[in-house]
Amino acid sequence: MSKIITVGREFGSGGREFGRRLAEELGFEYYDKEIITEIAKSTSLSENYVRQVVEHEPHRLYPITIGQTIPYVGDYAFQMEQSVYQAQRKILLEMAEKSDCVIVGRCADYVLRDLKPMRIFVYADMQSRVARCMARGDGDHPTTEKELIRQIKKIDKNRAKYYEYYTGQKWGAKENYDLCVNTTDTVIKDIVIHIAKML
Q: HSE of 191 in the Cβ direction (CA atoms, 13 Å)?
């Protein structure tokens, strides 16, 4: 059976770098944005559309007026989201079965739960996340620190809503992970070396 590591992360915590470096250190396959590409191929949807679906709060609990006036739009959005999620689930399972791997995001810890993955969650304090985003140019180029903080919170909120909708679990809750890694004021490549030795 393949060894599987899943990485959930707060935006700006360095979770993507953590996952990539961990995969390199262990000699595992690394999957992140490639998942979006594979979903797009399997559903014949654009990568941009798939990205929008998986990075935003699901269209559930429409106001009653929307359901009464334009039910088709609501139903269509819901159906497309479900199609994307099911494609994502299938692709994650295929990737996990192929080889040892590190998978970032995509509810992978839950989708692959029967395969007993090592579930890691990466987090950091807001100051460190802002500094990391500014240094790397992450996000949609907000012009002020205040705008960047607002964007970070919005992205995390969308991730939490998406995760909780499809898993029924609280995103980022320590009891849902095997290891929580605080990257505040740390060098990720140094942390990874130590963690890789533990696995």
A: 20
3-state helix, strand, coil in the chain (%, to 5): 60, 10, 30
Token pair belonging to 163: 């995760």
Which domains are delineated in the chain? 4-198 (3.40.50.300)
The pLDDT value given to residue 59: 59
Give the other-Cβ count within 10 Å of 66's Cβ.
12
Closest C-alpha among 72, 36, 37 to residue 54: 36
Sheet holding 101-104, edge to edge: 29-31, 101-104, 4-9, 118-123, 179-182
Mean of pLDDT values over 185-192: 94
Handedness of CA 150, 153, 155, 158 (dihedral sign): negative
Least confident range of 100-104, 131-135, 137-141, 169-173: 137-141
CA 151 to chain centre: 16
How far is Cα of residue 23 from the mean position of the Cα atoms in its chain? 16
Give residue 144's pLDDT band: very low, low, confident or very high (50, 70, 90). confident
Asked whether the beta carbons of 83 and 43 are under 8 A apart, the reply is yes
User: Does 70 score more than 60 pLDDT?
Assistant: no
